[in-house]
Write a structure and sequence with these properties.
The chain has 13 helices and 13 strands. The termini are close together. The strands form 3 sheets. Strands 1, 2, 3, 6, 7, 10, 11, 12 and 13 form a 9-stranded mixed sheet that branches. A two-stranded antiparallel sheet has the order 4-5. It has a two-stranded antiparallel sheet with strand order 8-9. By secondary structure, the protein is α+β, with helices and mostly antiparallel strands.
Amino acid sequence: MLIEIHMLKNYPATNLNRDETGAPKTCFFGGAQRGRISSQCLKRSWRTSPLFDALKSKGWRSRNLPDLVAAQLSDLPEEAVAHARKMLTGIANKDGKMDEKDLITGQLIFFSPEEVHFLAEAVRALWNDGAGGEIKKFLKLKPGDIAEAVKKAQARAITLDIALFGRMVTSAAFINVEASMQVAHAVSTHALDLESDYFTAVDDLLTGQDETGAGMIGDIDFDSCCYYQYASLDMDKLRENLKDSPEALARVDELLPVLLRVMALSNPGGKQNSFAGHVAPDAMLVEFKPDKIPLSYVNAFAKPVSRYSTQIVKDSTDRLAQEVDLMDGFYALPVAHRAWMALRSESAPRACERFGSFAQLLDACAAWARE
């Protein structure tokens, strides 16, 4: 089954996802510049949300793997643990080169708590069996020895977020995971007007008698956008990814309502202390398809909604409902269930079940996911 999630989120002045200049990210679509939030930014905001913790199946993306593994090797001699930490810095490097200074991996790795324990056990086995408990033999071991030991061993459990968003690592010590969830870059439904805030900061201890003026001055770019967000989740691929992860697999039936809450109620963290742009969706569409034919409705906004409209959310919602009907009329893709919720528009696709509250939509989607 394929589950597709479409949302419209209308933000006030924000800078949620910055480019290399510090300005909000943009793209051109339909001949007009649009606001954009990258898929990587969205996925990070979802998987790091406290709401995702309800699933109790969460990994880490970090270069500090050696420290986490070393913390589980307290029974080994200190010199052996120090060498193990050095070896672990090289397991993700193609050349196996160890980092003896910073003691971090050569690349960012997305890993589960179970994999940390698994690597610790591999190091312990090398100490006991490979080196026979002799420090001189152990100090001769290289990162490749750990990778080889892990490669020959049994499969390791991964977490739900790794199964959802995937990982690619150039290391034999980790198994690449193809994402079961595809996430589009969010784009604004209208053309973009980028603005800049010039600000000053006052020095509280200046009296104004000896020195006047601002303590500092600066500027920050921002925009205000109604974004269309789209993602598709292949439930069969998700279960396949979790075939060696029984604890995470057992929570798959709990996933969808939690994931929908996370996507709806969490927001990217860029400059939130300055702008506090915390919003919930104004429209939400969830589709359940027996055939795995994903379809984004982003072309509803190829002709931009007027950025001068006083009801930009309603206009965007109306466009989305019309696009669903247009695609249904031309392609008639099978849809087992379609849930629709809109706060500020009476529009709805012709073939859908309308919900008057988010809780009702979640309950229905949870039941459909179990079919």
